[in-house]
Amino acid sequence: MNLFTKTVLKFLSIMSLIAQVLCTFAGLMLLFGAGALLLVPNGVKKQLLQYNSNTNLSVWFLVLSCLIALAIIACLFIIMYALHKMIGNIYEQHFFVSRNLTYLKLILISITSFTVLDFISQLLFAQVHAYNVIDIFPNSWPSLIGKILLLSIVYTLYVVFKYGISLQDDSNNVI
Predict the structure, then answer these.
(1) Which is higher by pLDDT, 33 or 135?
(2) Are the beta carbons of 107 and 83 closer than 8 angstroms?
(3) For every residue of the chain, which 3-state class applies, written as one string?
(4) What is the pLDDT of residues 61-87, one digit of tens each?
(5) Is the pLDDT of residue 38 over 90?
(6) Is the CB of residue 123 less than 8 Å from the CB of residue 137?
(7) How many Cβ atoms from other residues are within 10 Å of residue 157's Cβ?
(8) Environment class of 111 (CB within 10 Å of its CB; exposed 0-12, middle 13-18, buried 19+)
(9) Which domain does 130 fall in, by range?
(10) What percent of the chain has pLDDT over 90?
(11) CA-closest candidate to residue 81, choices 110, 60, 44, 56
(12) Which pTM does this prediction carry?
């Protein structure tokens, strides 16, 4: 493995660790926010709900949206965790091992869950006409096509790694 490849893998490993820390921080803040919505006095709740006058929001709707956002952040954390572990394996030149296949499967499931949860959050916020909130993850055709493309790329990598592992096992049994 040349120096450029090692440098890029180290950089990606560090970036995935930073992303894990940021996802953890965001998840803790969402838990704190959801808990605060349930624990604050009723007068404060009314003022909070009046702040966004063009929607008909309830506290339970806000808590539910926080929990969905927390699940989305958990999906992103799992993706970054699996990516970090897989990069570590590749850096150590363990390419076609079953752990990488497991990490790819975890990434595939997490991306699928992220897409479904994002769609659910889009539906929830569309119900109350909170369009300024749902622009965080746009649900346009190019965005949907991009998510499908990402899923197909990860699935293709999964199939390639699965085949590579079977070839590696056959090669190890012959020798």
Answers:
(1) 33
(2) yes
(3) CCHHHHHHHHHHHHHHHHHHHHHHHHHHHHHHHHHHHHHCCHHHHHHHHHHCCCCCCCHHHHHHHHHHHHHHHHHHHHHHHHHHHHHHHHHCCCCCCHHHHHHHHHHHHHHHHHHHHHHHHHHHHHHCCCCCCCCCCCCCHHHHHHHHHHHHHHHHHHHHHHHHHHHHHHHHHHC
(4) 777 888 898 999 999 999 999 999 999
(5) no
(6) no
(7) 16
(8) buried
(9) 3-174
(10) 54
(11) 110
(12) 0.84
Amino acid at 78: I
55 pLDDT above the threshold of 60: no
Nearest to 50 by CA among 42, 66, 125, 64: 42
Q: Which of 113, 119, 112, 95 is nearest to 150 (CA)?
A: 112
CB 90 within 8 A of CB 9: yes
CA dihedral 68, 69, 74, 77 (to 10 degrees): 160
Confidence of residue 149 (pLDDT cuts 50, 70, 90): very high
Residue 40: per-residue pLDDT: 75
HSE at residue 152, side-chain half, CA atoms within 13 A, is 6
Number of domains in the chain: 1
